[in-house]
Design brief:
This protein is an alpha/beta fold. It has a single domain, classed as Aldolase class I (TIM Barrel). About 45% of the residues lie in helices and about 15% in strands. The protein is built from 13 helices and 10 strands. The strands form 2 sheets. The chain has an 8-stranded parallel beta barrel, surrounded by 8 helices. A two-stranded antiparallel sheet has the order 2-3. The relative contact order is 0.16. Its EC number is 4.1.1.48. GO terms for molecular function: indole-3-glycerol-phosphate synthase activity. It catalyses: 1-(2-carboxyphenylamino)-1-deoxy-D-ribulose 5-phosphate + H(+) = (1S,2R)-1-C-(indol-3-yl)glycerol 3-phosphate + CO2 + H2O.
């Protein structure tokens, strides 16, 4: 008798179910030992955290400019979609770093997009995906990523620490993403200085900048807050800055503009 799959009640749960299946398939095609070997023999990383700190020290917003084709909440965002040209435009605008979506089923992403973007500029690049297994971390470094995202809502503490330890052993930065006070408390148990506050609830896809207003002031001074999601205007930038975040990750708003370079520059110089 066939057993029906469990009903998954929220978007994040459905994404993670797909992600675990993807990892099973990809790791079957390339053993962990092989992808780890490739990662440990990849070229040097670019300093992701240092790039953000330098931008802030110079009086600019530390912008992590995102490259993604689509999203569950926004549908298709940009067509034609040219990762290399977007990377060059963001670099010209003064972005500190890039974030590139690599998830295929939900964001129409691809690791090739990250490779193209990183090869077109000198900016450090975050692989933005739902990281749940060591195999993905090694794959990210093997393909050139300088940083990875760890979403606390998607991980146990044990998983988060294991993935961070692997990333640090590969000289990669880690952006730990939180959406509520409990996740923030857990993230502060990690070594990373980068704490992303996602204004979007990944279970419901509702976005509210009040999440940043609440959580960013709770982040200790030795960490670096990064505001994420729902940031569209210079006033939004100033609002998050008042809360305590001088670094921001912005994607959909920029990608929907005809001139992404001008749009990015407008946020970077909003302070």
């Amino acid at each position: 008798m066939n057993v029906a799959a469990p009903i998954l009640s929220d978007t994040l749960a459905r994404i993670l179910a797909d992600k675990y299946e993807e990892v099973r398939e990809r790791s079957a095609a390339m053993p962990l030992s092989e992808v780890e070997h490739q990662a440990r023999h990849a070229g040097p990383t670019r300093d992701f955290t240092g790039a953000l700190c330098s931008a802030v020290a110079e009086g600019r917003v530390g912008l992590i400019a995102e490259i993604k084709r689509a999203s569950p909440s926004g549908g298709l965002i940009r067509e034609p979609f040219e990762p290399a040209e977007l990377a060059r435009a963001y670099e010209r605008a003064g972005a500190a770093c890039l974030s590139v979506l690599t998830d295929a089923p939900w964001f129409q992403g691809d690791l090739g997009h990250m490779v193209q973007a990183r090869g077109a500029c000198a900016l450090p690049v975050l692989r933005k995906d739902f990281m749940v297994h060591p195999w993905q971390v090694f794959e990210a470094r093997a393909m050139g990523a300088d940083a990875i995202l760890l979403i606390l809502a998607a991980l146990s503490d044990e998983q988060a620490h294991e993935l961070e330890d692997i990333a640090r052993s590969l000289d990669m930065a880690v952006l730990a993403e939180v959406h509520d006070a409990r996740e923030l408390e857990r993230a502060l148990g990690l070594e990373t200085r980068l704490i992303g506050v996602n204004n979007r609830n990944l279970k419901t896809l509702v976005t509210d900048l009040a999440v940043s207003d609440e959580l960013i002031p709770q982040i200790p001074a030795d960490r670096i807050p990064v505001g994420e999601s729902g940031i569209r205007t210079p006033e939004d930038v100033r609002r998050l800055c008042r809360a305590g975040a001088r670094c921001l990750l912005v994607g959909e708003h920029l990608l929907r503009q005809p001139d992404v370079e001008e749009a990015a520059r407008g946020l970077i110089t909003a302070l």
